[in-house]
Structures are given as structure tokens and as C-alpha cells.
Amino acid sequence: MQAYPVADATGLIKLDAMENPHRLPLDLQQALGQRLGALALNRYPGARVNDLRTALARYAQMPEGYALMLGNGSDELITLLHVACAGVGADGQRASVLAPAPSFVMYAMGAQLQGLDYHGVPLTPDFALDEAAMLAAIAQHRPTITYLAYPNNPTGNLWDDSAIERIIEAVGAQGGLVVMDEAYQPFSSKSYSQRMQRHPHVLLMRTLSKFGLAGVRIGYLIGPVTLMAELEKVRPPYNISALNAECALFALEHAEVFALQAQEICAQRALLLEALGQLPNIQVYPSDANMIVLRVPNAQHSVQALKARGLLVKNVSAMHPLLHNCLRLTVGTPEENTLMIQALKESL
Questions:
Q1: Which of 5, 28, 209, 215 is most buried by a 10 A CB count?
Q2: Prior bond of 154 cis (ω within 30°)
Q3: Cα separations (Å) of 150 from 146, 260, 316?
Q4: Distant-in-sequence, close-in-space partners of 73: CB < 8 Å, separation ≥ 6
Q5: What is the largest CA-CA distance in the chain?
């Protein structure tokens, strides 16, 4: 294994990590600073964490009979799921994780760290779910947890609704859990949240990182009350800091500001897709997230050429053979996107 790499972005326009490029307006920065300065930092986090749980449940329109667990980003929630499910079942089979591939790297890394087997099922060449292969893998491996990123990371696309339903039903028949990972929900045209009540073995995972709070590290997991009560047993006490909880509460109180930012990002995504589609010798893939994947003649050359022009993007070629010579670009501000298009033209 190797440690999760974080590229040095000093002096560069940062378009490699799917962050919201917009900062808080100055008046909200000042108001938030006053609130954070007044917190009792000598005390462990208390009731405000419960207030955040309630606010997020309302924001996500959590249904009756469901509960919400907070994590230090989605990464911690994935770890807690693996901790809760690790071990050997009554049938003597070791717990395992299954996911389409390529997808979020923490599914595989988290499984490996907690001693669960991991099974990645390749997508089709156009990054669609290979339903037949997924169903065969579910029947063969009987996964304890199956992850479906919706939209997917790093490809940014949604998958066929009917294929998702059949996969969820197959996992349920084997006694496993399905985690619908909606990290990019603010930019997506669809959500599984309205359908999850059909299946008591489905959990919904989201984060506020793409909402606009990547530096705050708040993730949340929604599922049936009885199931979430079991998962809460492995959650460390005070895993959400008082500062992070207050930042998230403040952001939810001003959700309309972040909603406008998401609208701007979606509009810029459409313009980027159109502009990228006119460049020679590249293939651009559709996206429902705040990122775009494109295939270029030489990904390493393009990354270095963009970096020389002050732009940092992600070379995802090494993540999976299906991503050979692919770049992942974060949708930035209008000015950043204009610079990126011009730099790509020059580098190609």
C-alpha cells in the first residue's frame, strides 16, 4: 500500500480535488468567526452536535423510522462500517466489500485496513455499470457491504436506475448492506433518497465536503433506526469537534448561499462540457458531479503542461486500466475554467 497522496498546490489554481471553488461572502466569514470565537473549547462537544444531527436530518428530508450518524467526513463513516462488519460469519466466510471499479479509492483501502476482502467489478468501457458482472460477483462473493457511488467518483456519471434496483435486490437476498454514496448530491440531477425506504438494507451516505465545507470534515450516514443503533456502537465518542459542528450548523442556516453556488457550478459544468467537446483529440465523458473526466493522448504530458501554466488537475490513469490517459478536472470559477480551457488548447 501507499499513503493517500495529496498534491502540493502552492502557487497553483487547484482543480484536482472536487472542491467548491467559492468561499463564504465576507459578511458571513465575520459572522462565523464571532460564533466560533464564543464556543466553550474547554468542553467536549455537547448538545450542538445533536443539533447538527437534527438539522442534517431535516436538510436531507430523512424519513420516519430512520436515524443519522455523523462522521469525520465520509472517510470515517466508511471505516466505521468496515469495523462494524469485519470478521467471519456463521458460514465461515470472511466479511467482504464489493464495488464497481473504478470508484472511490477509500472503499478498497478501508476494506484492506480492516481485514475485509475487496472485490472490484469493472465498469463497461463507457463507465456504465456492468449489471451482469455485478450480479455474478454478488452471487459468488456474497458481499457484506456493496458500495454504489451515485454519481460515481472519479467518472462523475450516474447509472441506470433499473440496474441499480436489481443489484440492490440481489445484495439484500444474500443478506448484505448497500451503501448509496451521494457525496456529489448538490450537483446531481438524481438522488436515491426517495427510494431507499423500499429496502431496509440500504444506507445513504453523504458529505458536506462538496456542499462547500471540504475543510470542515462532516459526513453523515442515514439508515433504519435499528441498524444505525448497531453502527453507533463502533463510533468513537466526540468524533465531531465543536468547531466543525458549529461551522456545519452555520452553513445549513445559510443553505441558500451554497445552493446558489451549486447552481453556478452546474452552469459552469455545462459550459465546460461544451467547450471541452470542441477540443481536438480528446474524449469527454458526461458528468452529474462537480468534476469532468476526459481522455487525452498523453495524460502525464497534459498534467505537466497544465501545471506549467499554473493549473493543478488530477491524472487518474493509474487508478484503473479503464482510465488510461484520463484526467479529472474540477469545475472551478468562470475565470478558472476559462484559463483551464485555454491551457488545454495550448497543451494539446
A1: 209
A2: yes
A3: 13, 22, 19
A4: 207, 209, 217, 218, 219
A5: 60
CB 294 within 8 A of CB 320: no
b/e burial code for range 144-173 (CB count within 10 A of at least 16 → b): bbbbbbbbbbbbbbbbeeebbebbbbbbbe
Which three cell numbers mark 340? 483551464
What angle in degrees, to the nearest 10, is found between the helix axes of 334-347 and 299-308?
Answer: 120
* Number of neighbouring beta carbons within 10 Å of residue 110: 24
Which residue type sits at 306? L
Q: For 267-320, write each residue's pLDDT tens digit.
A: 999 999 999 999 999 999 999 999 999 999 999 999 999 999 999 999 999 999
As to burial, measured by CB atoms within 10 angstroms (0-12 exposed, 13-18 middle, 19+ buried), residue 271 is middle
pLDDT tens for 187-228 read: 999 999 989 999 999 999 999 999 999 999 999 999 999 999
Strand 177-181 with 145-149, pairing:
parallel
Q: What is the pTM of this model?
A: 0.95
Set of cell numbers at residue 94: 470472511
Question: What is the full DSSP assignment across 53-91?
Answer: HHHHHHHTTPPTTEEEEEESHHHHHHHHHHHHH-SB-TT
Q: Cβ neighbours of residue 61 under 8 Å, at least 6 residues apart?
A: 193
Our CA dihedral for 96, 100, 102, 108, rounded to 10 degrees, sits at: -10
CA distance 257 to 262: 9
